[in-house]
Amino acid sequence: PTESGFTTDVLALYDWAKARSGNSSILFWGHSLGTGIATNAARKLQEERGVQVDAIVLESPYTNIREAAAHIPITKIYRQFPGFDYLILDSLALGNMFFRSDENVKVLACPLLILHAEDDTVVPPHLGRKLFEMAHSAYKDKTKVKFITFPEKLGLGHDYISFNPELPTLVKDFLNIK
């Protein structure tokens, strides 16, 4: 799998869904690695086709894959060794893996909802907050960007935001701002 391939796949799926959805809204929902794919596809639609996706929901997002890899707990032990940047972080770039959500959100205009659990031990919540701050400062219409955090006591971690019974209401409320 490649970043370009993922993005191309999402665009093909978007075209397929759009052709069959009538006037229904289509939103991109990315989780973890998928958040970079969602923002890539939305940006490509906007810049290359002049089409704006109806909304994007990013669950447990990061700013870019290099920064995420530098902060995920599994790499903590290796960060102290010489060559970590070169062997781990630079190898992502050599493989054309960037997933630059931080750059993508600066040019997007569609509604953007960012969700992050405070007890996420895979993608640190500060990366989601940082992405929100970048988007919020870049968006002309600040009401189109929202960040929702889920307290640690809920135990949602990295993978269980979708299990929160309040999530459908939160998303519906967000989509009503359009």
Largest sheet: 4 strands, parallel
Distance between the termini: 34 Å
Following the backbone from N to C, one meets helices and strands in this order, namely HEHEHHHHEHEH
Q: From the 3D structure, determine the CATH topology.
A: Rossmann fold
Number of strands: 4
Mean pLDDT: 92
Q: What fraction, in percent, of the residue positions are helical?
A: 40-55%
The structure class reads alpha/beta
CATH superfamily: Alpha/Beta hydrolase fold, catalytic domain
How many helical stretches?
Answer: 8
The CATH top-level class label: Alpha Beta
Tally the structural domains: 1
The poorly predicted ranges are none
Overall morphology: globular
Please identify, by name, the CATH architecture. Answer: 3-Layer(aba) Sandwich
How much of the sequence lies in strands comes to: 5-15%
**Gyration radius over CA:** 16 Å
**What spatial order of strands do you see in the largest sheet?**
1-2-3-4
Quick overview of this protein structure:
The protein is an alpha/beta fold and 178 residues long.
Architecture overview:
- Residues 6-75 form the Serine aminopeptidase S33 domain.
- It comes from Ciccaba nigrolineata.
- This is ABD12 lipase.
- One of its GO terms (molecular function) is monoacylglycerol lipase activity.
- InterPro entries: AB_hydrolase_fold, Hydrolase_4.
- This protein is α/β, with parallel strands linked by helices.
- The protein starts with a helix and ends with a helix.
- The chain has a single domain, classed as 3-Layer(aba) Sandwich (Rossmann fold).
- It contains 8 helices and 4 strands, in the order αβαβααααβαβα.
- α1 packs across α2 (33-49) and α3 runs antiparallel to α5 (84-94).
- The protein has a 4-stranded parallel beta sheet, sandwiched between helices.
- α7 links the parallel β3 (112-117) and β4.
